[in-house]
From TrEMBL:
<dbReference type="GO" id="GO:0003676">
    <property type="term" value="F:nucleic acid binding"/>
</dbReference>
<dbReference type="InterPro" id="IPR048588">
    <property type="entry name" value="CvfB_S1_2nd"/>
</dbReference>
<protein>
    <recommendedName>
        <fullName>S1 motif domain-containing protein</fullName>
    </recommendedName>
</protein>
<dbReference type="InterPro" id="IPR012340">
    <property type="entry name" value="NA-bd_OB-fold"/>
</dbReference>
<feature type="domain" description="S1 motif">
    <location>
        <begin position="151"/>
        <end position="211"/>
    </location>
</feature>
<comment type="similarity">
    <text>Belongs to the CvfB family.</text>
</comment>
<dbReference type="InterPro" id="IPR036388">
    <property type="entry name" value="WH-like_DNA-bd_sf"/>
</dbReference>
<dbReference type="Pfam" id="PF17783">
    <property type="entry name" value="WHD_CvfB"/>
</dbReference>
<dbReference type="Pfam" id="PF21191">
    <property type="entry name" value="CvfB_1st"/>
</dbReference>
<dbReference type="InterPro" id="IPR039566">
    <property type="entry name" value="CvfB_S1_st"/>
</dbReference>
<dbReference type="Pfam" id="PF13509">
    <property type="entry name" value="S1_2"/>
</dbReference>
<dbReference type="InterPro" id="IPR048587">
    <property type="entry name" value="CvfB_S1_3rd"/>
</dbReference>
<dbReference type="Pfam" id="PF21543">
    <property type="entry name" value="CvfB_2nd"/>
</dbReference>
<dbReference type="InterPro" id="IPR003029">
    <property type="entry name" value="S1_domain"/>
</dbReference>
<dbReference type="InterPro" id="IPR014464">
    <property type="entry name" value="CvfB_fam"/>
</dbReference>
<dbReference type="InterPro" id="IPR040764">
    <property type="entry name" value="CvfB_WH"/>
</dbReference>
Length: 282
């Protein structure tokens, strides 16, 4: 028996902390914590062989989500600087995506809750590694976008980063690319995003944007007002009837510019006014 095998083993005998299983030559422990259904009265059981946290060969009735020849989405549960990220593969022990398979900058490494499309590799010593899928593997999930996707929003997961931008696969399998000019900050690998389709290409993929539509974009004045409010826990003692001199002193803008910016914020339902104050909506 070796780590990574899926075997059907005979139940040899019961112990206080589980069952000992055998293939006729070797025996292995199936701990109570690794039993997911009643096996009393059975003669054999299907198990996955792995190395437990104490370095011992052990058995579990849990089956990994991914394997050496099966890719699937797995969730990130932890990140360790300089080492990589750990992903939940359906076992009590997590698998490591080593830093060599991650972006060079840790600022865009996946965070807890992000997802990666991976396969599983288990060494002879029982260490479990997950490796993100190459383009030819993840392309098996792709579906062509039709022309009516133009200007629609797509939600999906970032699966690849390059110098000029980020590749995303939508929940429906549409392949999208976000150029660096179409974002304010670089998304993380594995991050879930919602982006707007700005071009449907002949190959069925799309170009995406994370920037707001021009009519939805906040002006510099609106951004300044919102920034000031957030520095004061989302409230300020100014509204559209405030004295022009007070507005000029605080924001260095005319009352007309202040009212336009404030009106834009209210139209987008970002703020509201009440008794001489303006509040950010949470």
């Amino acid at each position: 028996m070796r780590p990574g095998q899926q075997l059907t083993l005979q139940i040899d005998h019961k112990a206080d902390y589980g069952y000992f299983l055998t293939d006729g030559d070797e025996s292995i422990l199936l701990h109570h914590s690794e039993i997911i259904e009643d096996i009393d009265g059975l003669e054999e059981v299907d198990v996955f062989v792995y190395v437990d946290h104490e370095g011992r060969l052990a058995a579990t009735m849990r089956k990994p989500i991914i394997s050496a020849d099966h890719y699937d989405w797995v969730e990130v549960v932890d990140a360790v600087s300089g080492m990589g990220v750990f992903v939940d593969v359906g076992l009590t022990k997590d698998a490591l995506v080593a830093n060599e398979h991650l972006p060079p900058y840790e600022s865009v490494w996946p965070k807890k809750g992000d997802r990666l499309y991976c396969m599983l590799k288990i060494t002879s010593h029982g260490r479990m590694f997950a490796k993100p899928a190459p383009e030819d593997k993840i392309s098996e999930l792709f579906h062509d976008a039709s022309p009516d996707f133009m200007n629609k929003e797509l939600s999906g997961t970032v699966y690849r980063l390059i110098a000029s931008g980020s590749f995303m696969i939508s929940d429906g399998g549409i392949r999208g690319f976000i150029h660096s000019s179409e974002r304010k900050e670089e998304p993380r690998l594995g991050e879930k995003l919602t982006a707007r389709v700005i071009k449907v290409k002949e190959d069925g993929s799309v170009n995406l944007s994370l920037l707001p539509r021009k009519q939805d974009a906040l002006s510099v004045d609106a951004e300044e007002i919102l920034s000031y409010m957030r520095s004061r826990n989302g409230a300020m003692p100014y509204w559209d009837k405030s004295d022009p001199e007070d507005i000029k002193t605080r924001f260095n803008m005319s009352k007309a510019a202040f009212k336009r910016a404030l009106g834009h914020l209210m139209k987008q339902d970002k703020v509201y006014q009440e008794e001489g104050w303006t509040y950010e909506k949470k």
